[in-house]
């Protein structure tokens, strides 16, 4: 499952108008751009689209026009939706050039029924997203296909707490495994504990070994990772319930270190490796968005984190879109994976080796660093 391209605009014909011109993506992408160009906003736009398609964002927006193309099981899906004042103005889903769902601002539309091999009309409330209302594996498998892409995708804000301070409350009279199976959300970006326990439950020691191996590549030598109750002397939940925490044991050392005592950089690295390995082992093959990858890590670890993420994408485990303004990260990533954002007033355009081959190819012969390419601004 791959996001091929995306365009977006909001508040057209208003002072707060903003547009992202058509932008294309590869399996792994490093988005670079000067401050206030729109890197984090791009991540927010794609995250919003994932929420619309998956159903995590059920309500119509004040304003927004999305158009996105996907490759799913060798078929090309195009999804368009436009909002104005919390009313869906237009919605369309096509597969290989054939419309399968269309609707207008009145809520009326038509949709293809696979079992009957015909189109039937429908009417939904004007603020309802028809794609969400018509999810049906039997009759509308094309909707389920694109919804599965969105639900298997996730956004990680690497420069944030990343869930380090988030602990689970264990129910009394149940084991750690039983409790986490019942309460955890393996897809929650800030729930590394839940993702870890889902991975260990399904894949066992192989999941642990993959995490430990990736942490070693990042310069953190571990011999064990686990989830355990936190010592009550450190913290307890209300009513005396134990708190559950990720725990690591470093190689050649004996102390078991709970997540709240890890450095922020080490925890971010641990959480990221857990999330990426969950994507690899589970085979969900969604889109992983990582904003400010490498934030809080030193040069070698930041570059290694990027390399690990790109290796997961190259293996087919997922598609990666990451942002960074770190000079060393930029120099470590081939220009073939770059998306350079440039902003002209309210409009943002992205340049890649696919849509601007001449500019990228010419720079390769200069002998300068990738960072010089970033600062040159030599696009037109």
TrEMBL record:
It comes from the Bacteria. This is ATPase AAA-type core domain-containing protein. It comes from Pseudaquabacterium rugosum.
